[in-house]
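Figure 3 (text version): C-alpha cells given as input.
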C-alpha cells in the first residue's frame, strides 16, 4: 500500500580493506516508488546495488527490502526481488522465449504456468512477435525490454536496476521509464535504479545523491532543486577569475568559476542580468539565466560536477 516503507537502510557501511565504499547510509523508500540513486563512478552505487541484491554483505549497519534482512533473510528475499544488471545477462544464442523459460526455471516455475507467465510479459513489453528471435539479433532497446521481462517474470515486489539506460538511445531510455511508471501505477512495484544520468533521475519520484560513499541529499527532484533558492546565472568572459572576484565584491554574491564560466545563484536572475552588464561594461561576452537543475544541486553539495567525480 502507498506510504508503506519497503526499503530501509540504517547506518549502512561497507569497507574494502582500508577503503570505505559506503559510509553510514540511512534512507527509506515507500512502496510503489521509482527511486534513483544518483552519483558518479566510484560513488558507491554499485556496492549498494550488490548489497540490496544479496550479492554482498555490509560491513556494518542494516538493509531490509520487502521486510527481509539482506543477510539473514537472503534466500527469502531473492524470490521477492527482480534484478536488471548493467551488463546484459541474456544468452545471445537463445531466443527471447528460451531466455524467459530458463529464467522461470531458476524461480521454480515450469509447465503451463511458466508458459502463460512468459506470454504475459512478452505481450506487456511488446515482445510476442520476437519470441522466436535470438537475443543477439535484437536491438539494444529490445534487449533491455527482454531484460525487464526476465526481471519481472516471477512477479517481484521490488525491481532493482543497475544503470539500466547504459547503451540505450534517448527513445529507448524514455521507453524504459514509461515501463517503470506503468509497473508503479498498475502493479504497485517499487523500482530502485542506480544512475549517473541527470535527466533519468529527474523523471523519478525520489532521488538519493551519493558521493564518495556518503548520502548527501534525499528528496523529490522538485524539492532538491528548490534548495538552490533562485536562478542560475552563467557568464562567459575573457577573464573569468577577475570577473568572479569583482562580482563577489560588488554584489556580495557567491560567484564561482565553473566549466570556463562564472556561475552565480541569484533570485530573480532576469532582473540581475542588467545590473551585471551595467556594472562590468565590456567584460561580459554572454550571459544566460536558467532554472536550477539536478546538476546545480550536485555541484552545490559536492563542489564538482557529476561527470568530474571520477573514481575515488
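Below: residues designed for each position.
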Amino acid at each position: 500500500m502507498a506510504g508503506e516503507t519497503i526499503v530501509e537502510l540504517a547506518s549502512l557501511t561497507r569497507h574494502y580493506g582500508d577503503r570505505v565504499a559506503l559510509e553510514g547510509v540511512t534512507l527509506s523508500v515507500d512502496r510503489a516508488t521509482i527511486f534513483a540513486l544518483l552519483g558518479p563512478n566510484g560513488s558507491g552505487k554499485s556496492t549498494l546495488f550488490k548489497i540490496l541484491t544479496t550479492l554482498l554483505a555490509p560491513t556494518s549497519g542494516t538493509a531490509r527490502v520487502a521486510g527481509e534482512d539482506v543477510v539473514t533473510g537472503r534466500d527469502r528475499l531473492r524470490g521477492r526481488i527482480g534484478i536488471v544488471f548493467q551488463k546484459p545477462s541474456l544468452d545471445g544464442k537463445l531466443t527471447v522465449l528460451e531466455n524467459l523459460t530458463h529464467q522461470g526455471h531458476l524461480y521454480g516455475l515450469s509447465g503451463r504456468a511458466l508458459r502463460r507467465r512468459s506470454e504475459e510479459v512478452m505481450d506487456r513489453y511488446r515482445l510476442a512477435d520476437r519470441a522466436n528471435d535470438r537475443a543477439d539479433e535484437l536491438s539494444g532497446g529490445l534487449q533491455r525490454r527482454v531484460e525487464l521481462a526476465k526481471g519481472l517474470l516471477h512477479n517481484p515486489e521490488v525491481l532493482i536496476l543497475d544503470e539500466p539506460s547504459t547503451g540505450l538511445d534517448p527513445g529507448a531510455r524514455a521507453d524504459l521509464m514509461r515501463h517503470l511508471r506503468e509497473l508503479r501505477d498498475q502493479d504497485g512495484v517499487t523500482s530502485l535504479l542506480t544512475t549517473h544520468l541527470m535527466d533519468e533521475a529527474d523523471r523519478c519520484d525520489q532521488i538519493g545523491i551519493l558521493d564518495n560513499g556518503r548520502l548527501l541529499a534525499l528528496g523529490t527532484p522538485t524539492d532538491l532543486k528548490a534548495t538552490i533558492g533562485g536562478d542560475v546565472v552563467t557568464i562567459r568572459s575573457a577573464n573569468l577569475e577577475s570577473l568572479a572576484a569583482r562580482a563577489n565584491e560588488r554584489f556580495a554574491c557567491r560567484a564561482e568559476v565553473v566549466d570556463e564560466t562564472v556561475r552565480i545563484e541569484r533570485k530573480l536572475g532576469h532582473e540581475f542580468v542588467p545590473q551585471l552588464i551595467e556594472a562590468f561594461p565590456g567584460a561580459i561576452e554572454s550571459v544566460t539565466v536558467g532554472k536550477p537543475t539536478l546538476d546545480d544541486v550536485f555541484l552545490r553539495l559536492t563542489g564538482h560536477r557529476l561527470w568530474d567525480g571520477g573514481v575515488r
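The mean pLDDT is 91.
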